[in-house]
Amino acid sequence: MPKKLTASDFRVSIARIARRLRNERDPSNDLSITALGVLGVLMREGECTLGDLAAHERVQPPSMTRTVRKLEEAGFVNRRPCPEDGRSTYVALSESGRATLLADRRRRDAWLSRAFEELTPAELEVLGQASAIMDKLVETK
Fold this sequence. Notes:
Blueprint: H1 7-23, H2 33-45, E1 48-49, H3 50-57, H4 61-73, E2 77-81, E3 89-93, H5 95-116, H6 121-138
Antiparallel strand pairs: 1-3, 2-3
Helix pairs in contact: 3-4
């Protein structure tokens, strides 16, 4: 009989896979996980306000402002004022940011694809189901 999954066991498994994926990053890419997350949101959602980015990444607006400032200084994003609200700023992914994000994803996806080759079709099916459930967990308040 399989061992009952505990929250602690699950958290440890997630932390281990996240650590492994971080270790598969290009060593010359010194962007933080938060910064890569912002680039990912911009690629998926398109132009966003700083407030939208902060809410999406579940960080405080001043923290997001610092992250976006660093990304802008590196040429990975472009900012422009919001014409409707002078206090807001729109942020968009630059071509350099897109290329950096895609290169980072390719490298980590390559490792994960090699790892998938070691799994059985049944394990891959279970993993697909688990992935959908994990997406649901992320949205839990």
